[in-house]
Inverse folding.
């Protein structure tokens, strides 16, 4: 009799466990997840305007305003075009412009810089050089050239060559290589 009672108790425990734990939980529906949108780098709005300094052998040198996304050819056209006989092969007419840059037409980069001190004609002026001209300096690539131009815009220009040290990405060794190749006009 004790054996039958123990057997009956064990069966009750097993049946109760199956009743409680034997069922599968109800399926949960996952909430909808937010979708990520691909972000593109800041592209200027079509309504934004660029101010470009066009210097050299053009009909109307000076500041021109062109729509965002414009190219060197557009700035040249806005300045009245090149003077007759000017060699434009040194310019990349298809290059996109950035606000505040300078396009030198028919003159070497060093000639575009205003005459400062003696010997400055062979140096690139930090306050008037284009991103392309800055990119031509040793150890300066497109990113560093853009940082120099951005620093110039944010701080109203360079008042000394030594301020080049304040540009992000220009350490002491790079500054020493650049020091004799740049000027401030």
């Amino acid at each position: 009799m004790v054996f039958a009672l123990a057997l009956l108790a064990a069966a009750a425990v097993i049946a109760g466990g199956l009743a409680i734990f034997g069922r599968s939980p109800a399926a949960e529906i996952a909430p909808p997840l937010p979708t990520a949108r691909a972000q593109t780098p800041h592209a200027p709005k079509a309504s934004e305007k660029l101010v470009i300094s066009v210097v050299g052998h053009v009909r109307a040198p000076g500041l021109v305003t062109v729509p965002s996304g414009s190219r060197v050819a557009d700035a040249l056209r806005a300045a009245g075009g090149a003077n007759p006989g000017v060699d434009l092969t040194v310019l990349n007419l298809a290059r996109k412009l950035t606000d505040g840059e300078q396009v030198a037409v028919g003159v070497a980069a060093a000639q575009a810089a205003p005459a400062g001190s003696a010997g400055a004609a062979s140096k690139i002026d930090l306050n008037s050089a284009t991103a392309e001209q800055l990119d031509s300096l040793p150890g300066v690539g497109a990113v560093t050239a853009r940082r120099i131009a951005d620093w110039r815009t944010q701080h109203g220009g360079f008042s000394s060559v030594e301020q080049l040290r304040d540009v992000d990405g220009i350490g002491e060794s790079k500054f020493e290589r650049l020091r004799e190749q740049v000027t401030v006009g």
